[in-house]
Design a protein that fits this description.
The protein has one domain: Uracil-DNA glycosylase-like domain (Uracil-DNA Glycosylase, subunit E). 40% of the residues lie in helices and 15% in strands. It is built from eight helices and seven strands; from the N terminus they run αβααβββαβααββαα. The chain has a five-stranded mixed sheet with strand order 2-1-5-7-6, sandwiched between helices. A two-stranded antiparallel ribbon has the order 3-4. A hairpin with a 2-residue loop joins β3 (98-101) and β4. Bound molecules: uracil (URA). Belongs to the uracil-DNA glycosylase (UDG) superfamily. Type 4 (UDGa) family.
Length: 205
């Protein structure tokens, strides 16, 4: 992958990538955010999970999926018998985008331009880890991995061959989508379907 994002050299390992990303100003999201939330997990992880962007708690902690969506994610992994520490967990966009509302910071969806610019970091992570499987949590992650817009309905739960010929992609819902469902029954159904998708991931970890 050619150098970009203001760095004259592509990183040799994840630590170098993380250190470079700490200083990234390739899009305006760096400024109001607390810090870059880079991916977390072993460099030889067989699976990369990709979310959308860090939320409020992730922005403060500096780690992906530690807030409410992370709890839903963890529960589904536990149900499928997957040890999260063996996987690499990251996001399509690595800064928290939000709108201030009083003392609260309300999540704002990253636009396609921000996703495109930040894709460089995801490509570094993919290149350095070379996983067997990438799991896209939601449509933003799927769009970043595939480089084109797709719907969850058309892509969910199938193993899709990526153009590199070595990596597969599994698309599922974003855990925050499950949390937003107002009907408890629908939420229970979606939690079960999400855990079922994690069951499909289990074969790769
Ligand atoms: N939602 C995401 O997409 N990523 C996180 O890290 C947290 C919430």
């Amino acid at each position: 992958v050619p150098a970009f994002n203001g760095f004259n050299k592509a990183p040799d390992d994840l630590d170098e990538a993380r250190e470079q990303a700490r200083h990234c100003k390739a899009c305006p999201l760096w400024e109001p955010a607390t810090q870059t939330v880079f991916g977390k997990g072993p460099a030889d992880a067989p699976v990369i999970f990709v979310g959308e962007q860090p939320g409020d708690q992730e922005d403060l902690a500096g780690e992906p999926f530690v807030g409410p969506a992370g709890k839903v994610f963890d529960a589904a992994l536990a149900e499928a018998g997957i040890d999260r520490s063996q996987a690499y967990v990251t996001n399509a966009v690595k800064h928290f985008k939000f709108e201030p509302r009083g003392k609260r910071r309300i999540h704002a969806k990253p636009n396609m331009g921000e996703v495109k610019v930040c894709r460089w970091w995801l490509e570094q992570e993919r290149e350095l880890i070379r996983p067997k499987l990438i799991v896209a949590l939601g449509a933003t992650a799927a769009a970043s991995v595939l480089g084109r817009t797709v719907t969850i309905r058309d892509t969910r739960s199938r193993l899709i061959d990526l153009p590199d010929g070595a990596t597969k992609l599994l698309v599922t819902v974003h855990p925050a989508y499950i949390l937003r469902l107002p009907d408890p029954e629908a939420q229970a159904r979606e939690r079960a379907a999400f855990a079922e998708d994690m069951g499909r991931v289990k074969a790769y970890v």
